[in-house]
Specification:
Structural class: mainly alpha
Distance between the termini: 12 Å
Number of domains: 1
Oligomer: single chain
Mean pLDDT: 90
Radius of gyration: 17 Å
Number of helices: 6
Number of strands: 0
Helix content: over 70%
Low-confidence stretches: 37-44
Length: 137
């Protein structure tokens, strides 16, 4: 069961890869380009109030998060046994669980739990934390 939970967690992460890849479309982000640094503020609907640097940082952080989710997903799917049977694997599992727990707390602090979408996302973040902590208990 422990390996199955970790593999499930891998697919959970891959779901977040897909979700984050759609951020540009979902939030109407226009990619920040270096040439914009010297021009007037442009951008997508939700990033347009930010200056070039902040628009770029938002998109870079999203791309890095996509990579982290992809790596965590693939490692979980293909190395589930190693994750639960080695010291380094257990440290990675705990780190992933803590990541999702922190994301849950941030969701509640910054978005609250009044809107249905925020409750759904909070439940998903809690699930991510639980899926990774249970195999090592």
């Amino acid at each position: 069961m422990s390996e199955s939970l970790i593999i499930f967690g891998g697919f959970f992460h891959l779901g977040f890869v897909v979700f984050h890849l759609f951020f540009w479309r979902l939030f109407k982000w226009k990619p920040a380009r270096r040439s914009e640094y010297f021009s007037a503020l442009e951008g997508g609907k939700d990033l347009s109030s930010l200056n070039f640097i902040n628009r770029a940082v938002m998109q870079i952080l999203n791309l890095c998060l996509i990579f982290v989710f992809l790596a965590a997903g693939l490692i979980s799917i293909f190395y589930a046994h190693d994750l639960i049977s080695t010291s380094l694997g257990k440290v990675l599992i705990i780190s992933i669980s803590v990541f999702w727990f922190i994301r849950l707390i941030e969701q509640i602090i910054f978005f609250g739990l009044k809107k249905k979408l925020s409750v759904i996302l909070s439940a998903l973040f809690a699930l991510g934390s639980i899926v990774y902590i249970v195999p090592i208990l």
